[in-house]
UniProtKB/TrEMBL annotation:
Residues 65-145 form the Core-binding (CB) domain. PROSITE patterns: CB, TYR_RECOMBINASE. GO terms for molecular function: DNA binding. Keywords: DNA integration, DNA recombination, DNA-binding. Belongs to the 'phage' integrase family. InterPro entries: CB, DNA_brk_join_enz, Integrase-like_cat_sf, Integrase_catalytic, Integrase_recombinase_N, Integrase_SAM-like_N, Phage_Integrase. It comes from the Bacteria. This is Site-specific integrase. GO terms for biological process: DNA integration; DNA recombination. It comes from Mediterraneibacter butyricigenes. Gene3D superfamilies: 1.10.150.130, Intergrase catalytic core. The keyword DNA-binding applies. Pfam families: Phage_int_SAM_3, Phage_integrase.
Length: 406
């Protein structure tokens, strides 16, 4: 079968430096006419096709929105069908880890290499943060591809595997450590926060959003209701009535020590919030960090500070000694030889429930876990991480087996 010849357009000719050329003009992405030259019509035709394809690509790229513009549009689209708390989390991660790194680039210009370079700072975060940022990248560029904003999705081979810093198993506070912590901050701003974490197992955002209208102290069995969540936007507190999951909405019985603490606190409070700032309002993020510093400054963890000496910035190291007073503040005594995080308080509460033989479904409810898998993973690690108890349990089981066989 004979190969069909392609129809070559009729081109004009021009002589340059004594040489005859075929010539045509095409309009580029800026709307300007650009001349193309070749010695034969076939060569010029190939040049014209290549130029037109490149112009189409350039035009497409110029019409493509910036990463910042499309990300903001994507966030707006998500607001229709995700919870307010989820949207806040999305917005924070997208602006901090995607827009900040690639915001000025055109969506159509972004390559996998660009994204992987942008993920380098995120790799210094926890593995869970890294994974969630990767998922956001993939979701945003997949949506752009489906909407024909881009021709190719650069994230199809992007993976979160191996990224970020794996979280260590969370240590819990021993009874002795919890007592020392409470003794160290007795009468200080973080005391009520710590009590709510240790004896009610509330998350940080649940404690800082807790109002007195959710605390029932004048009943036979005092309890509190979790119905609000604290978040911050640009360091300003935002109190949401919508919780992240349905399971987060729960009633928690108060042990006597916590009920007594809250009764005393309420009697001296003029705020509607249980843990307010000096003005009676919910804490900002910066104010919460200051609140937690009361605990950090009482630990023996080595720390650094800088001071200008003779016009130079000099680094100084502080190595606290347990039992001694802080050199800069005689009211501070280094009384904690262990570190404490807000979430550690909650994890200690859940662990104590399990050690007290509370059944898994009740633990799941009191912890506000939506998935039973989360509860059971913790339950298994805690319940079966005591070799002495396992030996007694197994010994009893085999004794019964031996008796049955006799």
């Amino acid at each position: 079968m004979a190969k069909r010849k392609r129809a070559i357009p009729q081109y004009g000719t021009v002589t340059l430096n004594g040489i005859d050329y075929y010539r045509t003009r095409v309009q580029n992405a800026d709307g300007k006419l650009v001349a193309l030259y070749a010695r034969t019509p076939e060569e010029l035709y190939d040049k014209e096709l290549g130029a037109l394809e490149q112009i189409d690509n350039d035009t497409f790229c110029r019409k493509s929105p910036t990463v910042a513009d499309y990300c903001e549009k994507w966030l707006l689209m998500q607001s229709v069908h995700v919870r307010a708390t989820t949207l806040i989390d999305y917005t924070s991660k997208v602006r901090r880890h995607i827009i900040k790194e690639l915001g000025q680039m055109r969506m159509a210009d972004v390559t996998l290499d660009d994204i992987q370079l942008a993920l380098v700072p995120v790799s210094e975060k926890s593995a869970s943060v890294y994974k969630s940022v990767v998922i956001l990248y993939k979701s945003i560029f997949r949506a752009a591809k489906e909407s024909k904003i881009i021709d190719n999705n650069p994230t199809i081979y992007l993976t979160a595997k191996g990224g970020g810093i794996p979280q260590k198993d969370k240590a819990v506070l021993t009874d002795e450590q919890a007592a020392r912590l409470l003794d160290a901050i007795q009468g200080l701003p973080p005391y009520v926060f710590v009590m709510l974490g240790l004896y009610a197992g509330l998350r940080r955002e649940e404690i800082l959003a807790l109002k007195w209208d959710s605390v029932y102290l004048d009943v036979d069995c005092p309890y509190l209701t979790v119905r609000r969540a604290w978040h911050t936007e640009n360091n300003r507190p935002v109190i949401l009535d919508e919780l992240k999951t349905k399971a987060a909405h729960r009633n928690i019985p108060l042990p006597v020590c916590l009920a007594d603490c809250l009764k005393e606190t309420k009697a001296n409070s003029q705020s509607e919030y249980v843990v307010p700032n000096r003005d009676g309002d919910p804490l900002s993020y910066t104010q919460f960090k200051r609140l937690w510093q009361y605990i950090v400054t009482r630990t023996v963890k080595e720390r650094f500070y800088y001071r200008y000496e003779d016009g130079k910035r000099v680094k100084h190291t502080v190595t606290p000694v347990l039992g001694e007073k802080a050199a800069h503040n005689g009211k501070v005594i280094y009384s904690l030889d262990f570190e404490v995080t807000p979430h550690q308080l909650r994890h200690t509460y859940i662990t104590n429930l399990i050690h007290s033989s509370v059944d898994p479904k009740t633990v799941q409810y009191l912890a506000g876990h939506e998935s039973s898998k989360i509860t059971m993973d913790i339950y298994a690690k805690v319940k079966y991480n005591r070799p002495d108890e396992l030996v007694r349990t197994m010994g009893g089981a085999f004794a019964q087996w031996d008796a049955a066989q006799a």
